[in-house]
Amino acid sequence: MISQDALFELFLKQSIKDYNGVIDSFLKDPSSIFADKNEQTGLFFDALTRKLANWKKSKECIYRNCKEKSIKKSHTIAKSAFLSVIAEKGHLYTPALNYKTYGTEIKKIGVNDASTFPGFCQDHEKLFFAFEQSKRIAGDSDAFRQIYRTICREIVIKEFRLNTILHLRDSYKKFRDGKLFIEIKKLPIMKLIERNSKISNFEYEGSDALLNSFDTEIKNLKRDIRKFRGIYFKRIHDELELKSKKQFFCGMNITVKGQVPVALAGRGNFVAAMDINSEPKTIELITIVLPSENETTVIIFSSVENEEYIKGYVERFLRQDFGIINMIESWMMYGSDHWFIKPSIWEKITAENQKVIVSDIMDPSKRISSFYPKTIFNDFKRDRLLALIKLKSNEEFEKMIIVENGKFTDAEVP
Ligand SMILES: [Zn+2]
Question: Where among 224, 242, 260 does a domain terminate?
């Protein structure tokens, strides 16, 4: 004979077991809540498209204390000055996220839409008029403004990404809890509970692998935003407004002869130690490449405490004949995805090599101190390589020729 209380206790125990069974089987394979890949893609695709539409809307101007509305399409890299000179038939190529596969792809983009972000109001757009009109970076003041613009874009895009990820996380959690609720509703105890009161929704407080990956990304973005707003933003405004000496920052502004057919404005980092006894440090820098008709401006920028590291970093590349091109290729591959390349340069790379390059972009194990083992600027390098061969001949040079010849990615025999 079993008492009513004991029976009830057994039922409760079994119910807890049933509930844990639903949760455990989900946690073992979180993707099991999606009926198929399409349902998963659909959920994120919808959430993403809804958010991405907001990117084009104007926001409050990012300039300190400015309350005006931003213009919708502020170019981080000036269109008429630097993008148009490398565009062909009004287009450029740029790395972009494929929203169906979540992988990177190299996509064609119209020059009017390239490098735009809702950043500044009409009035603060004027900060950049001087070099937009002269179509070149004439000195440190122009360079500083371009750096400012690049940092502002980093902040705006990171805040936008943060909002998007928060929205995705939220959509996913609602979907997940909804699916779990369907399973839980099937449990016998729910029939009992629902006899007295209707339960309309269910929230599972625990985490899972997907939620964890959202949370890691959210943490990283928040850290980056704090860093950019905290370290750069205030100081750079102080300097813009007071025209004070740039004591907070260090950097270089290098002019390269000839047009390197890419425009880039972003950031990158590398890890370095001053000597064998000191702790390695992550050095963040702003990287910019601005092509003109006959020259290319290359800008590197960081906080002043990184000055020695930056010098060491640049010297390591510039020691070589192709150092600056190799450095730019490293930035494109392992630093920023905010770059725009002349279409014919990209199209000349063989399909097979294009695939390799795309899959190497943003390899998380690499920093911008790594040399990329292939080349993107085949003709630019080949022309200079041929010119150099006529000029130089020594053992070190021969070695360099062998290395560089092995890096071409187009179909031409070097
Ligand atoms: Zn403004």
Answer: 242
**Separation of CA 125 and ligand 1 centre (Å):** 8
Identify the domain containing residue 188 by its residue range: 13-77+118-242
CA of 64 to the centre of ligand 1 (A): 8
Q: What percent helix, strand, coil does the chain show, rounded to 5?
A: 55, 15, 30
Q: Report CA Rg, the chain.
A: 27
CA of 71 to the centre of ligand 1 (A): 9
Contacts of 70 (CB under 8 A, 6+ apart): 58, 59, 60, 61, 62, 118, 119, 120, 121
Q: How far is the CA of 166 from the centre of ligand 1 (A)?
A: 27
How far is ligand 1, taken at its centre, from the CA of residue 132, in Å? 18
Expressed in angstroms and rounded, the spacing between residue 68 Cα and the centre of ligand 1 is 5
Residues 355 and 391 both lie in one domain: yes
Q: In tens digits, what is the pLDDT along the chain, a chain of 414 residues?
A: 778 888 888 888 988 898 899 888 888 888 888 887 788 878 877 777 777 777 777 788 999 889 999 988 888 999 988 999 999 999 999 999 887 777 889 999 999 999 988 889 999 999 998 888 888 888 888 888 999 999 999 998 899 889 989 998 999 999 999 999 998 888 888 888 888 888 888 899 889 988 998 999 999 999 989 988 887 788 888 888 776 565 788 889 999 989 999 999 999 999 998 888 888 999 999 999 999 999 999 999 998 899 999 999 999 999 888 899 999 999 999 999 999 999 999 999 999 999 999 999 978 899 999 999 999 999 988 988 888 887 777 788 888 888 888 999 998 865
Q: Which two tokens stand for residue 262?
A: 């890419």
Task: Name the domain count of the chain.
Answer: 2
Ligand 1 centroid distance, CA of 318 (Å): 39
Q: 211, 204 in Cβ contact below 8 A?
A: no
* Cα 61 to ligand 1 centroid, rounded to whole Å: 5
Flag whether 196 is in a domain.
yes
Together in a domain, 332 and 265: yes
Last residue of a domain, one of 222, 242, 262: 242
Helix and strand element counts for the chain (H, E): 14, 9
Distance 148 CA to ligand 1 centre (A): 14
Q: How far is the CA of 62 from the centre of ligand 1 (A)?
A: 7
